[in-house]
Predict the structure of SWIM-type domain-containing protein.
Amino acid sequence: MTQAVQTYAYLRPSAVLDGAAGRSLALATSGGSTPAGEVANPRFFAGFLTAPAPAAAALLAVADVAAARYYQPLLRASLDPVVTANGDRLRFESFSGCCGVYARLDVLADGLDGDEIGHGTTNVDVNNPLRESLSLIGSTDPLHLAVGPDALEVTTLDGPVVEKKVPLPDRWLRGFAETQVIGAGLDLRAELPAAEAVRFLRSLPRGGRTTVAWVVPAGRTLRPTTRPVPGAVCLPGPERLVALQRVLRHAVALRVYGPPNATAPTASAWEVVLPGMRLTLTLSPDAARGFSGEGGVLTALAAEGSAADAELVAVLLAWEPRIDPAELAEQAGISLARVRAALGRLGTSGQIGYDTAEAAYFHRRLPYDSERAEARNPRLTAARALVAAGAVRQEGELATVTVDDHVQRVRRGADGAHTCTCLWWAKYRGGRGPCKHVLAVGLARGEETR
């Protein structure tokens, strides 16, 4: 299988520059999408960061995740963070090389003081000299921020002077799709004030053997528990929160997000509230497995008509910071369920993200397509092959799927959820999305499966 290569072409390296007007953080952008189309080096913002030191530390935390592998850490990653301008904020995103940690820094309107914030998505250069400069930013240093080159730089520099080519793992692409599905299933479970947040995060291990821990809200703090009691939140691989250590001295609060009534290891999101911004790390259910295999998008990809619905919904998106599915349903003239399936499909091409703090989807645009994501999902590919081979036989609420020399039985319950007799379902109980047999039954029936 040929692995994709991501090429970053920058006009100059990102740097912290000293000038007559003070220090400036100049973030170089690579090719990206804007309302005007594809642009080689888009410019999204020029102005001041209202909290320079927290912003510098948070950007470093996002870069830390992009450069880290928490599983098999001897291998180093090198993918530049993604920045999206949503008109009222800037979002910086990255994945760890092992695809098990997703980081996002939301610099909100209160954290920016300058000209209008643009719309679009691109990559930003984060190099070692920049990291060293950011680590020296003090709390009293005014810091100008420029995301992208100005017109003079574009016209006077003769083409890209910095180019990086790095392998782009398929699992990293699928991670963008899976995290928006997982994020939509997480609710706010606890909020800790600054002092308790610092105490709790500093008590976590920074290395050693990976474990799955559980914590339960107890007043204004979190108490460890050995099992998933009611109200508990899973903390899978607590050492993977190490990037948050950079921002602890600036923390205003810590918010914890998890699914309700979890009884097995699950993903969770850990958000540090900073002045004018939020830094969130989302952890996969196990440090040894990334987000790419969670299977949350399979139902949307398999839904009948979701491809056409995705094309319809896509034209209604405009890098909105908050997407209301009900409003989209009204604008598109389709049902809310079809809109949600369309958003799931758009997520496979990186067009949709999810903000747990605001419980809302947001729009970005990455240079990937959903057909590529679908082709790289072996369960869906296998399910389509089963349907094409006539392997599915339906008998009311029970269906049989013939695979080689054996038969699997899929049953639909009163709540619409499916069970299967295969080993995959016995192991995960639907916790990693539907198995290929359930997907095949749904495809044969022309309905969504779960």
About this structure: The mean pLDDT is 87. Residues 4-167 form a domain with the DNA Polymerase III; Chain A, domain 2 fold (CATH 3.10.150). The chain has four domains: 4-167, 176-293, 296-349+370-376, 377-450. Residues 252 and 355 are 19 Å apart (CA to CA).
